[in-house]
Amino acid sequence: MKLSLSSGSRRLAVLAPAAALAGVALTFLSSCSPPRPDHPVIGAKNFTEQVVLGELVAQEIEAKSNLKVERRFYLAGSYLANQALISGRIDAYVEYTGTALTAILKQPVDRDPERVLATVRRLYESRYQVTAGPVLGFENTFAMVIRGEDARRLNLKDLSQATRYSPQWKLGVGYEFEQRPDGLPGLSAAYGLKFDGSPRTMDLGLLYRALQAHQVDIIAANSTDGPIQALGLTALADDRHYFPPYQAVPLVRDEALRRWPEIQTALDAISGKISAEDMRAMNEAVDGEHRDPAEVVREFRARRGF
Predict the structure, then answer these.
(1) Which of 105, 235, 239, 103 minimizes the C-alpha distance to 178?
(2) Engineering a disulfide at 216: which of 5, 127, 172, 268 sits with its beta carbon 3.0 to 4.6 angstroms away?
(3) Coil vs helix vs strand at 158
(4) In this model, does residue 2 exceed pLDDT 80?
(5) Bridging pattern class, strands 70-75 and 41-45
(6) Is the CB of residue 143 less than 8 Å from the CB of residue 228?
(7) pLDDT band at 182 (very low <50, low <70, confident <90, very high)
(8) Nearest one of 132, 129, 111, 134 to 120, comparing CA atoms
(9) Neighbour count for residue 59 (Cβ, 10 Å)
(10) How far is the C-alpha of 182 from the C-alpha of 244, rounded, in Å?
(11) Cβ-based neighbours of 74, under 8 Å, separated by 6 or more
(12) What are the residues facing 96 on neighbouring strands?
């Protein structure tokens, strides 16, 4: 970042070096601080479910207030979404507790849902002045998915059974899963999984297409993905309970909650109201039926009487 000093700052530099340094610091901070809009900004990561959830939060805030909500969706992954949040470029987005625990907060994997939620709430507040709000009601864990015909032919239901065949399979993964502490390295160690060659890394939206086209034989997907049921695929059970809990929970900047308490009212209204079946249906409506996420969310809210 290029730093420029005003003429006033240059005069201070001659007269008082300490004051000049203070002026430099203030200039630096002001140049790096994001603009503060007069409305909430809701973010979402770059896959369908996140866009649906971001739209749900935004619509609920607008319905419970006179606020106009700005949408900043398709943020590229958990790290960038978190950076946008703590820098104030967005005011809230929905995260998953296991992802928050391991990928963002860098804590050891924990498989107790209540303990994970408590840890996430405590550390987000102390580190970032961010509130982890009420859980939305569903969990979206990782799911190792294979073609339905392969599952039937090999009589496969869980990951332990799959270890016999995985050395012959090509693996497809999203960009985060290959490196995450709760992702591929730990999963492979827990089950002794080996695959044919290096994982093929791609955007999450391409994983199902690659599986259907036989470019890969197993993918690291999400349990609430609509195509699993729509395409007749099989999600192999995590029978050794490797994956931590991944409850969906809104993360909101404390400053935003103080400024717009209507955000809390909106989050309370949808707390515990979204099931995994709801999410799968909305995801499939967007991905499989190519419908507008905002329209899908409006219909869902109308059915539920939000």
Answers:
(1) 103
(2) 172
(3) strand
(4) no
(5) parallel
(6) yes
(7) confident
(8) 132
(9) 21
(10) 8
(11) 44, 45, 46, 51
(12) 248
Domains observed in the chain: 41-139+246-304 (3.40.190.10), 142-236 (3.40.190.120)
Residues 73, 271: contact at Cβ < 8 Å?
no
Residue 91: both structure tokens together: 């005011």
What is the CB neighbour count within 10 angstroms for residue 2?
Answer: 4
Residue whose entry in the numeric block shows the structure tokens 């050395």? 167
Check if the beta carbon of residue 172 is closer than 8 Å to that of residue 211: yes
Residue 25 is predicted with a pLDDT of 41
- How many angstroms separate the CA atoms of 116 and 194, rounded? 29
Segment 269-273 mean pLDDT: 96
Please compute the mean of the pLDDT values over residues 169-181 and round it to a whole number.
Answer: 90
Average pLDDT value for residue range 253-260 = 98
Q: Are strands 234-236 and 142-146 parallel, antiparallel or unpaired?
A: antiparallel
End-to-end, the C-alpha distance of the chain in Å comes to 46
pLDDT above 70: residue 297? yes
For the chain, list the strands marked E by DSSP. Answer: 41-45, 70-75, 92-96, 130-132, 142-146, 171-173, 200-201, 218-222, 234-236, 248-253
